[in-house]
Every structure is written in structure tokens, then in C-alpha cells.
UniProtKB/TrEMBL annotation:
Name of the coding gene: LOC108833131
Protein name (Swiss-Prot/TrEMBL): Stress-response A/B barrel domain-containing protein At5g22580
UniProt organism field: Raphanus sativus (Radish)
Location of the Stress-response A/B barrel domain: 6-98
InterPro entries: Dabb, Dimeric_a/b-barrel, HS1/DABB1-like
Quaternary organization: Homodimer.
One Pfam family per UniProt: Dabb
Coiled coil: none
SUPFAM superfamilies: Dimeric alpha+beta barrel (SSF54909)
Superkingdom of origin: Eukaryota
Length: 110
């Protein structure tokens, strides 16, 4: 099993008055300005049963070349600034940061 970068996975439940669209645009803007982010994906859960979801609504995943690139990202001034706004609208959060164990890589279309 090969390693394939470093992941920052965030699962959240936003506060009821959160302007989620603005947060999403801010996140997309943030990752587009910081080169250490290799990829960024997000999604809103609309398929899971509530008891499995436990109130969480959105998931965000960022991939970095390695842990050092992730650490560089977390200390970047734009991330520090955005984190304050992001944290202010979060009701519940789970964060996981880990080295990726690549079992089956995505298939790249020819």
C-alpha cells in the first residue's frame, strides 16, 4: 500500500443563521490562492439517514503533497483569516488530518 499525499478532512454542521453559500465561495477562493492545496472537494450530505449523519451537513476534503505542505497551509495568513470566519458559523465539527494510504487510485480517462 503506497502513500499518496496528506488529507485534511472537515465535516461540519453549520449554525442555522450561517450564510453557507458565502462560506463555500470563501473556501473556493481560499484554496485557489494557496498553491500547497493540490485538490479540494466538498459536498453536502443529502443521501444519509439523519441518525447516521448526526446533524452534520457538509464535508470538505483537501489534499496536500505531504504533511509539511499542510502545515504551511495552516499557517498561511489567508487560512488564518478565513478560519476565524469559518469557525464563527460552525455548530459542530469533526476534523481529521492524515497521510493517505492509497489502496485504489482514481482512474484517469485517456
Amino acid at each position: 500500500m503506497a502513500t499518496s499525499g496528506f488529507k485534511h478532512l472537515v465535516v461540519v454542521k453549520f449554525k442555522e443563521d450561517a450564510k453557507v453559500d458565502e462560506i463555500l465561495k470563501g473556501l473556493e477562493n481560499l484554496v485557489s490562492q494557496i498553491d500547497s492545496v493540490k485538490s479540494f472537494e466538498w459536498g453536502e450530505d443529502n443521501e444519509s439517514h439523519e441518525m447516521l449523519r448526526q446533524g452534520f451537513t457538509h464535508a470538505f476534503s483537501m489534499t496536500f503533497e505531504n504533511k509539511d505542505a499542510y502545515v504551511s497551509f495552516t499557517s498561511h495568513p489567508l487560512h488564518v483569516e478565513f478560519s476565524a470566519a469559518f469557525t464563527a458559523v460552525i455548530d459542530k465539527i469533526v476534523v481529521m488530518d492524515f497521510t493517505v494510504a492509497a489502496v485504489k487510485s482514481p482512474v484517469v480517462a485517456p
